[in-house]
Known about the structure:
Largest sheet: 6 strands, parallel
Radius of gyration: 15 Å
Helix content: 25-40%
Strand content: 15-25%
CATH architecture: 3-Layer(aba) Sandwich
CATH superfamily: HAD superfamily/HAD-like
Number of domains: 1
CATH topology: Rossmann fold
Structural class: alpha/beta
Distance between the termini: 29 Å
Bound molecules: magnesium ion
Order of helices and strands: EHEHHEHEHEEH
Amino acid sequence: MPHIPFAQIDRSWSLFLDRDGVINERLPGAYVTHWGQFVFLPGVPSAMAHFRSRFGRMVVVTNQQGVGKGLMRPADLAAIHDRMSTELVAAGARLDGIYACPDLRDQPHNCRKPAPALGQQAQRDFPDIDFARTIMVGDTPGDLAFGRNLGMYTVWVSGTEAPPPTELYDLQVTGLAELAARLGATS
Ligand SMILES: [Mg+2]
């Protein structure tokens, strides 16, 4: 397993973040369908402000099949992401983009992680994203396999999910605040 070269990280690097279970609390077996259900995990906005100061690009990649299931409209998801972005900007943690896949899990050729579609979409928007200089942070095996499929370094946020196979991740942290501390943030 390669070590994450934290000392080399500068603005030529990109950070990809999963959403549920990484930025905000997961709702086990359910979907965040409105802003009232969205709760930032502890220390996340300030950790993301530190990431903003270190990485050239910072994007969110998120599977949201609640849309495909008809449990929320695309506009509901967009409203959640608008509010999340506004709160993050206020904390100094502007995102370059949010890439959400509304597809159902059993839909053929879907865009869901671990498929690389969301990463390719981000790279089309920001051709300076270099996957070999990208860290992917997620809480599920699908997130980590997505990162592996694109040649990224991977960070597993441990917590509510069962441990993924160790070959899928390069570093384990308890949350974004720990990752920011490992990157040298002083809070
Ligand atoms: Mg997640």
